[in-house]
């Protein structure tokens, strides 16, 4: 029997593999730690600075209440006197601002009527009617109203506000109220005593945060809601106000006479698809008889008219408004 050939001993590799794997794991862990350290930790911001406390008093010439009136289409012009408006002697808003100015002294309430172009050009008129477009008019009215509110609040931080608008002016006043209610306006919501919108072109009673209706609740919606999406030169229909009036919802009131196409437009009567017909209907609606008769439109069983109700409402707010110290 021959002798067994000698063979080389088996090499044991497990220990070497383990060492290699351990080194790889350590390298990966070190790389991850280095990655996190270099990338930095998220620094969550702490509480912001506490807003400054309101001052104890305000300048002696500041009114306790600022009354802001925004007239409707063809009821103002850019150069009108905001404290003695004469651009249109039969302006609907004079039936509100006038009695308020007569009833209270200037130190109690400053009555300011926003002077703006207040026009609504028919973009398809031939020849052109020579008026400013709705977009330009509305933009100027909004800017001037916001400038006044901003200026007053910066100088008179304890002054309260009452805001009223009619027609195009109701759209402007309502848009500013919606901004204030959302916390993005020129004055804090807590300083706004109330807002009334007469014939608001963005009226949408079935939306969240909508205004409280005084008088009859028409079945239709504002022309800008019915025509949402219409965008022709000079006329942009912006639809309902998303989110309504926010924090101001319980302090905003609206009035709309049934049949007034500015605020009571049938949802399917105006269509962006029928641009020519819709624009003609809209421009005629601005001067329709129902739209011009709010001084006689009765809103309650006592025979109170829209303007009469607004005067009584505003006067009640002004009488009960805070009387901040002056220095």
Automatic annotation (TrEMBL):
Pfam family, one: Cutinase
Entry keywords, A to Z: Disulfide bond, Hydrolase, Serine esterase
Keyword set includes Phosphoprotein: no
InterPro entries: AB_hydrolase_fold, Cutinase/axe
Family that this chain belongs to: Belongs to the cutinase family.
PANTHER family: CUTINASE 4, CUTINASE RV1984C-RELATED-RELATED
Designated name of the protein: Cutinase family protein
Protein's organism: Nocardia jiangsuensis
